[in-house]
């Protein structure tokens, strides 16, 4: 089709020869049909990953463990049955296996598994488990594409900003400002991961990406290409309160937001800014009854209606009246004066730690009259109880000053609006400015947890919280993924928000154990290399993310000091492993594949870690039929569970026979999702550049 404004079409139209003019026009149309519009960049060679723990076997590509050479070779054979000396193809010669490390390029088949490192059960039994995976995020994403295709509500990531000073790694090499191809490498790096993220996200899901000034323009274009039917918007986030010393990029960064066409921020949760709940727990762990006896008292709540009945005497009042003469530190939080039909709620955490209320009784009752206190049911150490929450004085002041604007309610919960500026025709702020979004807040939060700052520029908790509330559409059951998990801010923010509003959001965090460029140089000078224990101890996962998550859940730092009361949450921390398919086929690696089935079942409750002798296993959330010969008993158990209200969300049927699988589907209750797994079940989780086997 010609265009009279196009120079080429104008020149073709001047050709007198009708046949030549027609042929040229046809060829130009073909070229136009094949030409790629949009962001154009060099797509660099696939990345590779070094696997320190993977066994050296024939046919596997290897490199030198000490990094003295960038060359790789394929193991041709071994010199004898001990398999200690490997003969390398090409000019690699003979090398002892201890000198070698397995290298896999992205695109080669990988057999993933998960090895549990730490399992912390500190929340209700029916709460979803938060998951942390340490490993190469490209491979972790591919495994999650198999378990979570179309299931994730919200993705938030904070990838490398490609400033030239942030020392991010491409193909095992740090990329700096001297690299002429740093932007095209960064785009190749991001495109591979965003293409998989697109498959994991729900059709109505949202992806939010924090990014700096260096790549924000290219990232917006990349997102428009990858998420071609979605809406891509950009928010500027103020990260510093000072004057710019060298350009605005030191005061601001950006949040690129990709939403579906169906995404319509509601007026109650997102208008001219990001809404967040102002409710906070009214317990204060900083002080004990020794120093604040007038803030230790019972709050009486009607057991059936949840209405406030009144408050009891404070410890200070009891001491003054002579009703208690012991050491305040030994005071037992219990009373025999609880009114009939009521529950006495004391300032006790879900872990049983006694603290104090943030308000004295007079202030509590006054705020209750103003609607600034709310009471919601919960279970405390397995027993029925109530959670007391309030709007703190700081937020009350912001409401009075107009910094926060009440915007109605969401599920009966008042919400507040942060930020003022809006983009024409949208509800997304062009400038998102809040004290809690400042970089210094992220540094302080991490230092508070670990006792020292150990990670550059961690994201502020309040920024992540506002993303969750603003783009989560007030959904308290979100499944949220961060595959550039870094120091673990997202998981802490979700656990904190769940504790505040009673939500059951689930976080899936993928991080790695990279060592910073400066630290890596120092370690190499000391003769250390990736895979060495001293090297791995300095990585971000081992040094920052894992201890941070453990500390915020348990409330105890690695050195034994007390950080907090801990969050009522369950979390499991895994290593991403690369399995030997031969070992899997012989039934030796099921415990590494089992967590993937558990994840696909929603990561709730117990996990089926062993192949049972009876040939099948069933939990409240998923089931596995290992042997179709016992289909009758298994189908009866699933039917009983479904009729009793505990229907599993997914059933795995392990068989190579399509006929046997169809028979199982027909015998199982209607509405239960079923998945066929090959008897060589590792094949179901084979991942490569093109995606999984299913």
Task: Walk me through the topology.
Elements: H1 7-13, H2 18-34, E1 48-51, E2 61-64, E3 73-78, E4 85-88, E5 93-96, E6 100-105, E7 112-121, E8 129-134, H3 137-148, E9 152-157, E10 168-170, E11 173-175, H4 182-200, E12 201-211, H5 216-226, E13 231-238, E14 252-259, E15 274-276, E16 279-281, E17 283-284, E18 299-302, E19 308-311, H6 315-320, E20 342-345, E21 356-357, H7 361-369, E22 373-380, E23 383-391, H8 393-401, E24 405-410, E25 413-418, E26 431-432, H9 439-450, H10 461-471, E27 479-482, H11 489-501, E28 506-511, H12 517-525, H13 533-536, H14 540-554, E29 570-578, H15 581-585, H16 590-600, E30 616-618, E31 622-625, H17 631-643, E32 650-654, H18 658-667, E33 673-677
Parallel strand pairs: 8-28, 8-29, 9-12, 9-27, 13-26, 27-28, 31-32, 32-33
Antiparallel strand pairs: 1-6, 2-3, 2-6, 3-4, 4-5, 7-29, 10-11, 12-14, 13-14, 15-25, 16-23, 17-21, 18-19, 18-20, 22-23, 24-25, 30-31
InterPro entries: DNA_methylase_N4/N6, DNA_methylase_N6_adenine_CS, N4/N6-MTase_EcoPI_Mod-like, SAM-dependent_MTases_sf
Keywords: Methyltransferase, S-adenosyl-L-methionine, Transferase
Pfam families: N6_N4_Mtase (PF01555)
Q: What's the quick description here?
A:
By secondary structure, the protein is α+β, with helices and mostly antiparallel strands.
